[in-house]
Amino acid sequence: MDRLELIKRNVQEIVTDEQLIDLLKNKDNPTAYVGYEPSGKIHMGHVLTVNKLIDLQNAGFEITVLLADVHAFLNKKGTMEEVRETADYNKRCFIALGLDPEKTEFVYGSDFQLDPEYMLNVLKLTSTTSLNRARRSMDEVGRQMEDPKVSQMVYPIMQAIDIAMLNVDVAVGGIDQRKIHMLAREGLPGHGFKVPVCIHTPILLGLDGTKMASSKNNYISVDDSEEDIQKKMKKAFCPAGEIKDNPVLALFQYHILPRYNNIVFYRPEKYGGELVCKNYQELEETFQSGELHPMDLKNGAARYMNMLLEPVRNILA
């Protein structure tokens, strides 16, 4: 896999491809970042962007992880003390998941977001951003947006200024961050800052085939025990032969196969014995044909997810 293929792997959208290619041609060590709002457990939806940061790191990018404690506070995720504690937990998880701590800069939002220069730039951008534009950018990520607080309108402005002040070339996030990133691309040049490339990863379904939600407990958390994962996978939505919107296949596509060269399913001999798939396309075809039973797919997913998350359990123990 060449450099560009690695960057684009499992990505839903790049804004823009041309700008990314130009960046790779003209800069030896481009920079990229993700901002994580410390607001609870790290689940596999978060890990999707961690995987992309690892891909970018392997493609020669310098990586910054913003632990956005001030953002979490503004978005009503807890007191500053509570969100800072969660941020520290997030950092340990990200390192255990494979981000190289020697090559990754971890930055707390409160380390620079309260500085005069930062706040002046926030105020400047508020002066050129309409209230409707700010509100629309929060549609996918804000809480209680039927009655938003002023702090939630400042949130996307701050995220845009984060990109500017961290001086990164690429902003990475889930596709739910798109409106905020577009605000940054449109608003930053007018204040003397460069336009970032934006890389967006998909939003994964929960294990029950519906929207992932903490209230449903339909996701895998990085600190789930082996038993937790096995129980969740047994109940996971996985209709035989169905490819579209299959959350178990999504675990293989986005989390397992990017880390393992091939995957092995261990089945009793009377059900076909050991089965090896060398890539996701082969796995999809095998499952769609009926050669691989849903329960065997689930058992394989549970085994590999437990292997993948074992380093996280160890570092949090």
Q: What proportion strand? A: 5-15%
Please report the first level of CATH classification, the CATH class of the largest domain. Answer: Alpha Beta
Number of helices: 13
- Which architecture name of the largest domain does CATH use? 3-Layer(aba) Sandwich
Q: Helicity level, as a percent range?
A: 40-55%
Q: Segments where pLDDT lies below 50 for 5+ residues?
A: none
How is the quaternary structure best described?
single chain
- Sheet having the most strands: 6 strands, mixed
- For the terminal residues, how far apart are their CA atoms? 36 Å
Structural class: alpha/beta
**In which order are the strands of the major sheet placed?**
1-6-5-2-3-4
CATH superfamily of the largest domain: HUPs
Q: Compute the average pLDDT.
A: 92
N-to-C SSE string, H for helix and E for strand = HEHEHEHHEHHHEHEHHEEHH
Family: Belongs to the class-I aminoacyl-tRNA synthetase family. TyrS type 3 subfamily.
GO molecular function, one term: tyrosine-tRNA ligase activity
Subcellular location: Cytoplasm
Function: Catalyzes the attachment of tyrosine to tRNA(Tyr) in a two-step reaction: tyrosine is first activated by ATP to form Tyr-AMP and then transferred to the acceptor end of tRNA(Tyr).
